[in-house]
Structure formats: C-alpha cells, structure tokens
Design goal:
Layout lengths: L6 H10 L7 H22 L8 E5 L5 E3 H14 L5 E6 L6 E2 L9 E9 L10 E9 L9 H4 L8 E7 L3 E6 L5 E6 L4 E6 L10 E3 L10 H12 L10 E2 L5 H11 L2 E4 L3 H5 L6 E2 H14 L3 E3 L16 E2 L1 E4 L1 H13 L1
Parallel strand pairs: 3-5, 11-12, 11-13
Antiparallel strand pairs: 1-2, 3-4, 5-6, 6-7, 7-8, 8-9, 9-10, 13-17, 14-16, 15-17
The chain binds 6-O-phosphono-beta-D-fructofuranose.
Length: 337
C-alpha cells in the first residue's frame, strides 16, 4: 500500500518541532477536522436526508439561513464545546460569542468560524466550505469577553478551511506555510495531497461579482477595465474571469493556480451603512493568513487586512486578495486615487 501522511500525523509531527508544545493545539485541530468530516457528510447527503432549502430564519447579518447553515453551526459547537481546548467560540451564525458551558473544562484557545461559507450554493450542488480562525485566549482566562476575541489577524495561531467540492479538502496554516489534505473516505482520514502550497505572483485571472460594477469605487473600476481591455489595453494581455460565489472556492482556486479575488467596497453597500460584504473575523482574516503564508497578499485596498484592529465580531471589510503583484497593483491604484 502506498505510504501517505494523514493530517493527524502531520500535525503531531509539527507539534514535535515546537519545544514545550503541550499537544492542546494538536488535539483542537483534530477536533476541528472531525467536525469538518461530519459537515462533509451532512453536505454530501443533503437532499437525501431533507437537508436542502431554507430554514426560514435570519442570522445576525439579516441573511436568510439555509437548513444546513444551522445544522453545520450545531455540528461545530457540539464537536468543540466539550473538548477542554477552548475558552470560547464565535460564529457567523451566532450574534454573541459563545462561552464554554460550565459542565466542561476550559482551554487556552478561542475559535471563530463560518460553518458553511457560500451556502447559497447548497441548493444548486456547487462547492461550499467551512472557514475557521484560532486565537489564543488571554492567560488564565476562563470567561472570555468580546475584547478578548477582537485581536488583529496577525495574532492568529492557525487558520484553515474545508472545501466540500468534488473532493473534500482541508487547507490550513499555523504560520509555517500552507498545506492541503484530501479526505479519503475509504479510511476516513484527510491525507496530505498538496504540500507547501504557493500562489504565483502574477496571474491572468480575476474573480469579482461583475453585477456590482456600476457601484464600484474608481480604483477597482480602473483595474477591472484594464483587465477587460485585454491584449489591446494597458496590461497587454488577456484576462480570464471566474465567480463561484463561495469565498472558499475562490481562495482554493487561487491557491491551486493563482488569481485575484475581490469583494471591494461599493456605493450600494455604503448606502446601506455597510463597511464591506465579507466578515473580518471569520472570513477575511483566516483567508488572509492562508494567502499570505502561501506568498500572496491581502488588503482592503487601503490597508493590510491582518493589521486591522477589529471593532466587532461581525465587522465587514472590503477584500482584495491573491497573487501578490496584482493585489499590489490594485492597492497602488487606491493610493493614486
Ligand atoms: O459569505 C459571503 C459569500 O457567500 C462569500 O463566500 C462569497 O464570496 C460571496 O458571499 C458571494 O457574494 P455574491 O452573492 O455577491 O456573489
């Protein structure tokens, strides 16, 4: 039988390289991957067990929840609350942070997650994902406050996502590069299939929701206009476009073959009092950590996302991430404007 490295083996070996590591983080990551296996199962069997469609409820963002948004959130909470590795949790689907119930021991980490990113894709059988970000709780803290969660992205201990696509994959970083693992359903394990992922610095592929074009700010309009002008325009080359409408899938594609992903600020959002579309704490920060660790860049156009001092659990920010030279170009257009 061919020798493979499972995700569990990989993280135990990573732990051995860190002097004084207690194994808490390794166990926590193991618990996260177990919850993602359960979610993969629910997503996969969806229509067979009545899990498609709307739950007819709204989350804190005012978005209609899918049945699977609620179920996957419950899976994450139930799989992680008892483990003794966490001091608290926060989720896209929960307005307030969730303390660990009294019945369970408290740990030294905090986790934030989007249990089912891109859930509008569920009913059309297109890729969705889970995103997570792990932070350290303040020393000795058993009942974390909101302030304890509001750490900039640079403080993340680990960030990752699972993509439920043609295969289920988990990609994560703990600050030593980015590695990708594919779920082998025959053995029930994630297996290392994509070691040391890196994002090419240049790209000819962009991802943006073009239907918002008339609302964009000038620097983004300029960048996309130049891409669309192709080989006859100032860029002197033709560009391709993709839009999956699930950030997990866009970031995954960028890790596989490069590209730039943008959900920029626009006039429509401004008129609604929004500061962006994507959520800083459990979407933009973890994805920025992964992208930067793979050699890419991530910015709002005006500042590095991971350096933003968070103001709220569900804060929204503009996101421009991917191949370094393209992101830097968009940032320079913002500076010039
Ligand atoms: O969580 C927000 C999200 O689903 C992202 O995953 C995705 O990139 C974006 O929204 C899609 O937005 P739109 O509906 O505008 O295409």
């Amino acid at each position: 039988m061919e020798h493979t490295t499972s995700l569990t083996q990989f993280i135990i070996e990573e732990q051995r390289r860190i002097p004084g590591a207690t194994g808490d983080f390794t166990s926590l990551l193991n618990d996260v991957l177990t919850s993602c296996k359960k979610i993969a199962c629910a997503v996969n069997r969806g229509p067979l067990i009545g899990l498609q469609g709307s739950a007819d409820t709204e989350n804190v963002q005012g978005e209609t929840q899918k049945k699977l948004d609620i179920i996957t959130n419950d899976i994450m909470v139930q799989s992680l609350e008892w483990t003794g590795h966490l001091a608290g949790m926060a989720s896209e689907e929960m307005e307030e942070l969730l303390p660990i119930p009294e019945a369970y021991p408290k740990g030294k980490y905090l986790i934030l997650f989007d249990p089912l990113d891109g859930s509008s894709n569920i009913d059309i059988n297109v890729s969705v994902g889970t995103i997570f970000s792990i932070l350290r709780a303040p020393e000795g803290c058993e009942n974390p406050t909101l302030e304890d969660f509001l750490q900039p992205g640079t403080e993340q201990v680990c960030a990752g996502y699972t993509i439920y696509g043609p295969t289920t994959m988990m990609v994560f970083t703990s600050g030593h590069g980015v590695n990708g693992f594919t779920l082998d359903r025959n053995i029930g394990e994630f297996v290392l299939t994509h070691p040391n992922l890196t994002i090419p610095e240049d790209t000819e592929e962009f991802a943006i929701n073009m239907s918002n074009q008339r609302f964009w700010e000038a620097p983004v309009k300029r960048y996309i206009d130049e891409c669309l002008a192709g080989s006859e325009g100032p860029r002197g080359k033709d560009f391709n476009m993709r839009w999956v409408a699930a950030m997990v899938a866009e970031v995954h594609r960028i890790l596989m073959r490069g590209g730039i992903f943008m959900y920029p600020m626009d006039e429509k959002m401004r008129a609604r009092g929004l500061t962006g579309k994507l959520r800083l704490m459990y979407e933009a920060n973890p994805m920025s950590f992964i992208v930067e660790q793979a050699g890419g860049a991530s910015s709002t156009g005006r500042e590095r996302i991971m350096e933003i001092a968070p103001q709220g659990l569900h804060q929204r920010v503009p996101v421009i991430l991917g191949s370094k030279n393209e992101v830097e170009r968009v940032v320079s257009y913002h500076a010039e404007a």
